[in-house]
C-alpha cells in the first residue's frame, strides 16, 4: 500500500492569503501540522511510502518531513502542473502507483479518522475508485482489492473540506473540545482536554482553563487567562492579565497586556475573525505582534553590536569624562555606590556601580546631558557582562528573584528600553516597555533604541 | 486631521465625525479639541463610520475623552464602528466602556430617551 497526496495551489489559495508565512501543508491544526494528520492516516491505512505531489513549492514541507523516517515511512516529492487533472497526475506517477494498491488524497481535505483504529484490513477490502468526496477534494483507491472475495463498500471514516478560515477555526476548536479526541496531539497530556508543550512558563496568578493545547516555549504571564477553548502555538507570549478564550494563537505571536482575544485567530500581528473572515493587521506592537524567530547567530551578533555601540560611546565620552569627572569628584557631586544586581534571567549577579550626579551648576548639567554617569558601566558591556541597552538592573534580593521570573528576556543594560520610549511615566509602564523589547530582541533595533535613550536623557527634565 | 463638532442634530449633543486614522500623530489633537468642546456640552457622539484605523494611542485618547465627559456628568457614545475598528475595541476591552450604536442618529436619539 502507498499513499499519494495531491495538493494544488488552487486548493489552498485561502491559506496563502490569510497566513502568508505558513505553508498550507504545515498549517497547524491544534498545534499539529496538517501534513502530520495525513501521514498518520496513511500509516494507519498500511502505507509504507508516501508521495507528495504539488504544483507549488514543497521545500519547506520537505525540510519538515525529510525522508519520513520519523513516522516509519518513506516520503518522496513530485511536481505537477496546476492544470493536471487527477488522471494525469496518476499517469505521471504511474511507477509509484503501479505496484499494488494506492490511496490518493486529493485536495485540502481533513480526514476524520480514529487513531485507535486499524484501517489496513478495511483498505484491503475496499473497491478501487472514489471512496469519498467533498467540495474540497476526494479520497480514492487504485489497484485491485487484496480480499477480492469480501468487498466492502462502507468507509469507517469521513472527509471534510478545509477551504476557508472559518472551517479551519471550527475544525481546530472541534478537535480541541473532543474529550475522546481520536488524534494524537503534541504536548504532555496526563488529563483530558489539556496538552502542554515543553518549556512552558505559567505565571503564578495565571489561569489555564480546559480544554487547551499549548505549544513549546510559551510564556503566560501573571493574571492571564488561557481557555477554555484555546490553542496556543509555540513561542508565544501572553502578557499580563490578557485572556485568550475560544481562540487560536499561532506560533511566534505576542499578545500584549490586558487584552481580550475571544473567538479569534491571532497570527503574528494579524487578528482574524473566523466567522466573517475579516482580518486586521495590528500596527501597534504593544498590542499584538509577531515574534521574530532568532537564529543561533543572534546572541553573538547582539554581543558584537552592543560592544561596538559601547565602544563608540566610550570614545565620545572619554575627553568630557577626563575633564569633568575630577571637578565633580572634588565638588562632591559625583556620588557612587556599589550594588549587587541580577545580570540576566539565570539569576547570575553582578556588582555594579550606580552613579548619581548631584544637581546644580553647569558642569553637573553637561555631565548629565552626556550621560557620563554611565561611563563606568560601558566597560561592563565590553566585558560581556551587561547589554548596552536592556532592562534596568534589578537589585539582587530574594523578593526580586520572583520578579525576575515575570520578566522574560531580562538582561541588565547600561541604558534601559524604558529610557528609549517617551511615554512610560510609571514603573508599570516601564515594565511593559522593557518586557516588550526584551521579548522582541532585535540586535539592530537595539542601536536605534540606544541612540533614542541617549537623546531622551538629554531632554530629561529631571536631570540637573 | 481637523476634528470638528456638529450640534445641528441636537444642540445638547456634540457629534464628532472621526475619519481616516487616529494614531499617535493626531490623538493629542483630538484630546486638545475635546478640552474646548467639553466647555460647551457634556454629551457626545463619536461617529466612526469613516474611521479606518485606530491604534492604542487613539484608543487612549477616546477613553480619555469619555472620562472627561463622565467627570462633567455627561457621556460619550460611539456610532458606526467598522469591523476592523470594532476588533481593536474588542481586543482591548474598550468596547465594555462605551455604549455603541449602529449610526450617529440612533446614538443622538438615545440621549433624548435617557433625559429625565
Comma- or semicolon-separated keywords:
heterodimer; A: 464 residues; alpha/beta; UDP N-Acetylglucosamine Acyltransferase, domain 1; 3 domains; B: 116 residues; Transcription Regulator spoIIAA; 5-stranded mixed β-sheet; 41% helix; 28% strand
Structure in words:
The complex is a heterodimer of chains A (464) and B (116). The model of chain A has no long low-confidence stretch (mean pLDDT 87). In chain A, the strands form eight sheets. In chain A, strands 11-12-15-18-21-24-25-26 form an eight-stranded mixed beta sheet, covered by helices on one side. In chain A, strands 5-4-1-6-9-8 form a six-stranded mixed beta sheet, covered by helices on one side. In chain A, strands 13-16-19-22-27 form a five-stranded mixed beta sheet, with no helix packed on it. Chain A is α/β, with parallel strands linked by helices. Chain A folds into three domains: 2-163, Spore Coat Polysaccharide Biosynthesis Protein SpsA, Chain A (Alpha-Beta Complex); 188-290, Hexapeptide repeat proteins (UDP N-Acetylglucosamine Acyltransferase, domain 1), CATH 2.160.10.10; 298-458, no CATH class. By secondary structure, chain B is α/β, with parallel strands linked by helices. Chain B has one domain (5-106): STAS domain (Transcription Regulator spoIIAA), CATH 3.30.750.24. Helix content of chain B is 41%, strand content 28%. A five-stranded mixed beta sheet of chain B has the order 1-2-3-4-5, sandwiched between helices. The relative contact order of chain B is 0.19. The model of chain B has no long low-confidence stretch (mean pLDDT 90). The interface between A and B is medium-sized, with 17 and 12 residues.
